[in-house]
Structure formats: C-alpha cells, structure tokens
C-alpha cells in the first residue's frame, strides 16, 4: 500500500511546515517588541500579554512596579540623575512617554518631568491612597503603572510627573 506511505509523508511534511510558520511569527513578534521608535504617537492599538509573559520579560522589581502598581525606593533609580538628551520610553512596551527637555530635579528621589511626550501617550486615573486623592498615571498601550502626577511642579504647566525609574528605558538622541 504505497499510497498510504505517500499520504503519511505528505501529512508529516505539512505538519512540519506549519510548525515552522508559527515559530517564525513568534520570533518576529518578539523582535517588534524590542524595536524602539522614539517618535511614536500612540495609535490606539493596545498590547496585551499574560502575567507569565510579563514576568518572563521584566525583572522582579520591574514586574512589581509596572504590573502590580509598586513603587521603587526613593533615590535608588538608575535614571534619577540622567541628564542626557533623549526620550524616556515605557520599560514594558517601549512607547515614548517623556522628553529629556521636560525633566527636572524635584528633590523627591524619583525622576520628575513637568510635561509629557504627547497627550496621547499617557493615561491618568484618579485613585484614593492613604494620603488622599491622587492621580495615578499609566502607559495607554500596555496599561503598565508608571507613577503619579501632582500639581506642585514648575512653570509653565505647574505639573510634576513623579515616575519610577524602573518603569522607564532611556533612548539617547543621536547627534
Ligand atoms: Zn507600555
């Protein structure tokens, strides 16, 4: 019965090619995630991942802050004193969030900005903490927590975006 053998071989080959195609798609998806575009304005396409995927991608501290609304200890963030020119992007999905031109030393111990990269690239939400009503801010694309915004910042906005350094990745502007 050689036709059965032929069929089995053909069936086996089609399974193998299917497997290869899926693997290829996964690889390109991961490559896209690591591509950073420092000019990108949020287009409404959200990124959703399982908790296991986030845990796999982020360090323990980043996961705790970004995905579980944690806060890093003051004066411990790697980007606190960064004075280079460039863009601060979301650590979880690379969406641009802040510009170096808007960074200032607030003395709080967390990276602070008086304005945002683009109104589309930040989402805010009122919440009640033990200090009263505050405004939590998060990334609109991956919904990761970033920090809070207060109204005691410098002119011209009067705002202070108080952001965990662990939530940011810095992309230096090429000269
Ligand atoms: Zn994000």
Automatic annotation (TrEMBL):
<feature type="domain" description="MsrB">
    <location>
        <begin position="51"/>
        <end position="173"/>
    </location>
</feature>
<dbReference type="InterPro" id="IPR002579">
    <property type="entry name" value="Met_Sox_Rdtase_MsrB_dom"/>
</dbReference>
<dbReference type="GO" id="GO:0005737">
    <property type="term" value="C:cytoplasm"/>
</dbReference>
<keyword id="KW-0862">Zinc</keyword>
<comment type="similarity">
    <text>Belongs to the MsrB Met sulfoxide reductase family.</text>
</comment>
<keyword id="KW-0479">Metal-binding</keyword>
<dbReference type="InterPro" id="IPR011057">
    <property type="entry name" value="Mss4-like_sf"/>
</dbReference>
<dbReference type="Pfam" id="PF01641">
    <property type="entry name" value="SelR"/>
</dbReference>
<dbReference type="InterPro" id="IPR028427">
    <property type="entry name" value="Met_Sox_Rdtase_MsrB"/>
</dbReference>
<dbReference type="GO" id="GO:0006979">
    <property type="term" value="P:response to oxidative stress"/>
</dbReference>
<dbReference type="GO" id="GO:0030091">
    <property type="term" value="P:protein repair"/>
</dbReference>
<dbReference type="GO" id="GO:0046872">
    <property type="term" value="F:metal ion binding"/>
</dbReference>
<keyword id="KW-0560">Oxidoreductase</keyword>
<dbReference type="GO" id="GO:0033743">
    <property type="term" value="F:peptide-methionine (R)-S-oxide reductase activity"/>
</dbReference>
<protein>
    <recommendedName>
        <fullName>peptide-methionine (R)-S-oxide reductase</fullName>
        <ecNumber>1.8.4.12</ecNumber>
    </recommendedName>
</protein>
């Amino acid at each position: 019965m050689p036709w059965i053998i032929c069929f089995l071989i053909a069936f086996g080959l089609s399974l193998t090619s299917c497997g290869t195609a899926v693997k290829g798609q996964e690889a390109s998806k991961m490559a896209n995630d690591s591509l950073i575009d420092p000019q990108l304005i949020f287009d409404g396409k959200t990124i959703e991942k399982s908790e296991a995927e986030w845990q796999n991608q982020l360090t323990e501290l980043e996961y705790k802050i970004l995905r579980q609304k944690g806060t890093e200890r003051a004066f411990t963030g790697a980007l606190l004193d960064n004075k280079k020119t460039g863009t601060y992007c979301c650590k979880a999905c690379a969406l641009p969030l802040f510009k170096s031109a808007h960074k200032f030393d607030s003395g709080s111990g967390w990276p602070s900005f008086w304005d945002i990269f683009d109104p589309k690239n930040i989402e805010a939400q009122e919440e009640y903490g033990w200090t009263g009503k505050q405004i939590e801010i998060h990334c609109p694309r991956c919904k990761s927590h970033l920090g809070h915004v207060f109204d005691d910042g410098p002119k011209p906005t009067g705002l202070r975006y108080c952001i965990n350094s662990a939530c940011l990745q810095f992309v230096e502007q090429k000269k």
